[in-house]
Specification:
The protein is of the alpha/beta class and 326 residues long. The chain has 10 helices and 15 strands. The strands form 3 sheets. Strands 3, 4, 5, 6, 7, 14 and 15 form a 7-stranded mixed beta sheet that branches. Strands 10-9-8-11-12-13 form a 6-stranded parallel beta sheet. It has a two-stranded antiparallel sheet with strand order 1-2. Bound molecules: NADP nicotinamide-adenine-dinucleotide phosphate.
Length: 326
Amino acid sequence: MKAIFCPRYGSPAVLESRSIDRPIPSETEILIQTVATSVTTGDTRVRALRMPKGFGLIGRLALGISKPRQQILGSELSGVVVSIGKSVTNFEVGDEVILYTGTKLGCHSEYKAVSQDAAMIKKPASMTFEEAAALAASGTTALAFLRKGEVKAGDKVLIIGAAGGVGSAAVMLAKQAGAEVTAVCSARNLEFVRSLGADLILDYIKDDFTQNGVTYDAILDAAGVLSYAQARTALEAKGRLLLVSASLPQILQAAFATIARGHRVVSGPAAWTRGDLEFLKTCVESGAYRVPVERTYPIEQIADAHAFVEAGGKRGNIVVSFARRP
Ligand SMILES: NC(=O)c1ccc[n+]([C@@H]2O[C@H](COP(=O)([O-])OP(=O)(O)OC[C@H]3O[C@@H](n4cnc5c(N)ncnc54)[C@H](OP(=O)(O)O)[C@@H]3O)[C@@H](O)[C@H]2O)c1
């Protein structure tokens, strides 16, 4: 079977397609044939060892000192169950599934063997495999930050980076929770962000939300551009600042500054459960949530997908697909 390896840190050119043995599932494992998988900003960060400022050493310790410890990247996939171990009870051969491995990665692979207890759900029938391949990473990240920020019905929420993977998911999930959503994006993405359901949209080149006197119960920054000093005037008393992609100085500055002001800062890695995937599935089935996919590349062009994601400004999510379908 084919798998994409990242044997060292570097540009997209370091990625190598290799033929390796297909895994054999143990008694409690499930073998999935991958149809599609995503290339996330996280994948490009691991490949290039490009961490937010202040996290360089932590990143190297976590990912591998001189080369990636996990050389097959990819945190999510969609596919079909092609065999199951003797003790597996919750999935059957032929099931169409979505798997999220998160920081364990390993999804840029034609076949994947996983425990029956992995974060895996049956794919909603209404989704294509390409959409399903990008349901988990962006969706669970947005969900984790909105939940930690206690975003609820009636809250006024500002979302920065609203056209990206995490930002687009956050717009739809905050709306689903009953919040009033103001989305911040570039001019070319105004219509796209409107289609996600945002109530108000600001173009970050023209509109400075820190100067217009409007305040929010929560501000989610998925673009990693906001300092606490900028956010302060736009936060309500007891407002929450949700920093999805912050540098260490940004986090420390915000943590100290908020002590005196009653604001709360949420940052760090997003946690998820299989229940979160089930929740996203119900949102898809009810029509409250969809997965925007800007481009799908064949697996042979995965380096181009990395380069496109790394250039910044992707709209929603980027997917790569395997030619051989089960
Ligand atoms: N904490 C966690 O657990 C976790 C998990 C997943 C991802 N992340 C991080 O979250 C970040 C976002 O990921 P993503 O996949 O959503 O990335 P993405 O799709 O590239 O989205 C980033 C968005 O930022 C916008 N942007 C760029 N400059 C901006 C500015 N000055 N003001 C406002 N918006 C601006 C871009 O929109 P325009 O094209 O409209 O400019 C782009 O759509 C990444 O850094 C990723 O590493 C963190």
